[in-house]
Amino acid sequence: MRAQVTLFVIIAILIVSAAGTIYYLSSQTSKSLLAREQAIINSVPEKFRPAEENFISCLKGKGIEALTLLGSQAGYVTLPDEDPASDYMPFSNMADVLGMKVPYWWYVSGNNIQKNQVPSLASMQSQLEAYLDKNAAECESSLRLLEGFEVNTAQPKTVVKINDDYVNFDVKYPLTLTFENLTVSVQEQIFTVPMQLGKMYQIAKQAMDKENENYFVEERTIDAIFLYPEIPSTSLNFECSPKIWTKTAVKESLQNVLVNNLPFIKLKGTNYAKSEKYFEIDVEKPAKTLVQMCFL
To answer: Which residues form the domain of 277?
Structure first.
């Protein structure tokens, strides 16, 4: 049962909505990070600052694009190679969620081998870096549209650090701007996206470990099956007439049961509307600022 039921539900989409959520820090850390960004802008002569602000804003937009993509694909900017299904195990290593491929963090391969493909923090950082390096040239192109400016750049090299409450981007992207016979050079662009990606990642892993330890989702699924008479179970029935089910109808009923029940599962301590304790998974309590996380 575990190998089959878990396959439906442990997609680790706990991180999906997480990486798509930006919030605003009010701590001293936030002020320090914003000061670093502003210091770069202030380091150039005043007439160059609008162009520099435009450049950093564009790069930050690319960073948010990368984070959103990583979040929507369970920690992957670039999807892993597809592990094909088989007649015995008719699922690949990725789920189709509204037309989008979302890698499972744990799955059973077509040849019946249990596999784990949880992305590491290092791999997530590396993928974000590669995305910025590949797409930063679009920001250079936007600068060339500014009237009167001449722009020269070199190949970018990005370093990303995922922290609990924010993601820091250090883009070593030498930029030379010329305007009205004046030239200024900026060697790197530093910006921060206030996103609880590191914290979300740790909580998602804890939730998965909890599930693998206690089979929480499987237990809730089995309970639900027993509550719905349209799904055959081992319950007693004293009617004389035989019960008949079709495979197609049972499959459809089970899918409906999962769709109607699993979304109620929540992580205890996160920010969500009131939930029945029956559906709460008790993992390590996160900070109160953690945004809502749930199973899809």
So the answer is: 2-16+81-116+198-234+245-281
DSSP string of the chain, one letter each residue: -HHHHHHHH---GGGHHHHT------SHHHHHHHHHHHHHHHTS-GGGHHHHHHHHHHHHHHHHHHHHHHHHTTT-SSPPPP----SSS---SEEEETTEEEE-SEEE-TTS-EEE-PPPHHHHHHHHHHHHHHHTHHHHHHHHTSTTEEEEE---EEEEEE-SS-EEEEEE--EEEEETTEEEEE--EEEEE---HHHHHHHHHHHHHHHHHH-HHHHHHHHHHHH-TTS--S-----SSPP---HHHHHHHHHHHHHHHGGG-EETTSS-S---GGGEE--S---TTPPP-B--
Question: Is the domain of 208 the same as that of 63?
Answer: no
Do residues 60 and 138 share a domain? yes
pLDDT means per 10 residues, the chain with 296 residues, are 40 42 54 77 83 90 93 91 83 82 86 87 96 92 80 90 92 88 88 87 84 83 82 73 82 86 76 74 59 39
pLDDT at res. 71: 87
Residues 122-152: tens digit of each pLDDT: 999 999 999 999 999 898 888 887 777 888 8
| CA 98 – CA 115 distance, rounded (Å) | 24
The number of residues making up the chain comes to 296
pLDDT in tens, 242-251: 778 888 888 8
Domain co-membership, 140 together with 54: yes
74 in any annotated domain: no
Bridge pairing between strands 280-281 and 266-267: parallel
101 and 154 belong to one structural domain: no
